[in-house]
Amino acid sequence: MDMNRREFLQLLAMASAGGLMLNNSYAASDTARMYELPGAGNVSLLHITDSHAQLNPIYFREPEINLGVGVTNGKPPHLVGAALLKHFGIRPGTPEAYALTSLNFTEAAHKYGKVGGYAHLATLVKQIRASRPGALLLDGGDTWQGTGQAMWSRGQDMIDASLELGVDVMTLHWECTYGADRIKQAEQGPFAGKIDIVAQNVKTTDFGDQVFKPYVIKEINTIPVAIIGQAFPYSTIANPRYFVPDWSYGIQEENLQLVIDEARKKGAQVVVLLSHNGMDVDLKLASRVTGLDAILGGHTHDGIPVPVPVKNRNGTTLVTNAGSNGKFLGVLDFEVKAGRVVNFKYKLLPVFANLLAADKSMTALMEKHRAPYEAKLSEKLATTDGLLYRRGNFSGSFDQLILNALMKEKDAPIAFSPGFRWGTSLLPGSSITMEDVLNQTAITYPTTTVTEMTGAQIKTILEDVGDNLFNPDPYYQQGGDMVRVGGLEYTCEPGAAMGQRISDMRLNGKSLDAEKTYKVAGWAPVSEAARDKGGEPIWDLVARHLRSEKVVNITAINAPKLKGVAGNPGIV
Amino acid sequence: MNSEMNLERRKVLKVGGGVGLLALFASIGLVSPAMAEVDRKAFSAKSMDEALSAMGVIIPEKTDAIKLSVPEIAENGAVVPVSVETTLAKVEQISFFVDKNPNVLAAHFYLPAGTEGMITTRVKMGQTANVIALVKADGKFYKASREVKVTAGGCGG
């Protein structure tokens, strides 16, 4: 049941007129009214984040597993499926439930259609801005990476699309993987006077000089509003250091406090942090620094419909996270009186492509950028019998496809694939095109590798990545998911201490020998040595595999046996 | 934040670094033979207890007056930036330890009377460990400690 926009609206109109319930349990008129969001307050901030260069509408299945450990257990963002819906008072089977969870994904995807898309987002931004004079559009980063087109144009399509969309301020993460020069070139070239790149936590390695403006103060309805930037703190660890050899990152909590205080002293009546920390880090940070009205967050791709208020020494800071892949537009309206915020309203609007007309000039811009790559991107490689997706703590069916391809093509019994949180979904029966493969793999360090590793080394790697995901102190987390593992079975206890989480590693039923050497295939190495050695890009390997397979049928996803997670609302 | 000023400062440091600064460092680097013997023992210590006893420390007091700045996760374990700033009066020495390094004492500074209690340096770390700052002020020892994680990297969101 694929509905176009007109049919969808007709159905909604009928439903609202006749008191019918769309999808059995949802008053459809609510959906129709969703985008008619009357302006509120006198300072409005619109927020997008982690679009991962998805210019066209896509499907994106949210995780069915996103475990919280320690203090984060059972709290947003570590709620999935029915637990998430219950927590936020959202009814199952509704368009919102489709946008925020993995429940009945394929059925809901057929019913409500694709999400996101810059042409549709542009229409929505214009509409929301019309009732909010002076509103700023903030982009949390991870905008220039995620598609073949963005990679080949070194982010040029997204630079132009961001300007067309009217982004005012942005911060960074994957942008850094195009190299320091590329970012400075955009900042000083097309962005000059239009888009400010802000990052209080990026400094030169030698003298500790600021690389970007730490913050900007902009007037909205004559009220000075400070936007402080927080780039992803671990760009030089989670991604190759060599792209930004002269820059140093980190959370920089103490410096952030100085910057907030400086902005307040300069007269800012509203101070927000545009953050790429990830939500767990933002929640901790909000409890430790004072003077922030809100942290508008991204990186961990959590679609959180209601801000989390976090108390600190001097007040409360709202923490939001606006999902990924262009699925959402966050709208934060502040009421500012006598120099301070007295009230707020927040709405995380899902971008349903069927409900929003495509903006004409954005469409034209997108077509122009796509034309040179159209033939290559649209090559049909295979079809998939089942749903292909990535998101989830341990693995996804698309990752399994990549792992299967690696193991077969490299003749290796074990394969590793990075736990990225971007990567779109494909419905059962879909063609898998080169574009779809690149949506999972388009990075600037794509080489495939084969490494001889001892059982002990394999355990060290799994423990290391596991700690980056499940360390009980969010400041030690990096915001990715667990490395995807092919061939090797293991048990994981997320709540255990560093070095104790991984056990019972088995290959073909036999315990892994710590001393013995195993052949491990992988991709996305971060070292310079691996870069210099070269190797086939992962997308070529996967494409070759798909052309020979023709039909993909992922019957089993290799995920670890979990210990100590019974009753955790971070699992469906 | 002013890029022109930064360029100037860089030039000055490049030119001045060779001659002027070295002369300045030489003139303040006064260390007695007795101090040198203590240092030799402390730098060869394999554990925190051994190092502290070599330096004549009984139990250092924990204090909020030492601000120890370290990265939560090291960007490069070979050069981890660490710094100490203290409001304690009469600072005589500032030392940095890495409790899991083969030799735990990483750096040791004597501060001439009247010097501000602030040191920034780089330490090498082979694995996740605690960085401990030890400050001797007015004859007494104080400490602050923070964990720095050293990770293999890759696999970020």
Salient structural properties:
heterodimer; A: 572 residues; alpha/beta; Purple Acid Phosphatase, chain A, domain 2; 5'-nucleotidase,  domain 2; 2 domains; six-stranded mixed sheet; 19 helices; 27 strands; B: 157 residues; alpha+beta; Immunoglobulin-like; three-stranded antiparallel sheet; 4 helices; 8 strands; 28% helix; disordered N terminus
Summarize the structure.
The complex is a heterodimer of chains A (572) and B (157). Chain A is of the alpha/beta class. In chain A, helix 8 (156-165) runs antiparallel to helix 13, helix 15 (397-409) crosses helix 19 (538-549) and helix 16 (434-441) packs antiparallel against helix 19 (538-549).
Q: How would you describe this protein?
A:
The complex is a heterodimer of chains A (572) and B (157). Chain A is an alpha/beta fold and 572 residues long. Chain A has two domains: 35-55 and 118-367, Purple Acid Phosphatase, chain A, domain 2 (4-Layer Sandwich), CATH 3.60.21.10; 378-562, 5'-nucleotidase,  domain 2, CATH 3.90.780.10. Helix content of chain A is 31%, strand content 22%. In chain A, helix 16 packs antiparallel against helix 19. Chain B has a five-stranded mixed beta sheet, covered by helices on one side. A three-stranded antiparallel beta sheet of chain B has the order 2-3-6, with no helix packed on it. Chain B has helices at residues 3-18, 20-28, 33-44, 48-54; strands at 61-62, 66-69, 80-86, 91-98, 105-110, 118-123, 129-137, 140-148. In chain B, strand 7 (129-137) and strand 8 form a beta hairpin. Chain B starts with a helix and ends in a 9-residue tail after the last strand. The chains are: A alpha/beta (572), B alpha+beta (157). The A-B interface holds A 173, 207, 209-210, 213-214, 232-239, 241, 248-251, 254, 278, 299-301, 418-422, 460-461, 464-465, 467-468, 471, 475-476, 478-481, 483, 498, 524-526 and B 1, 6, 9-10, 67, 69, 71-76, 81, 128, 147, 149, 151-157.
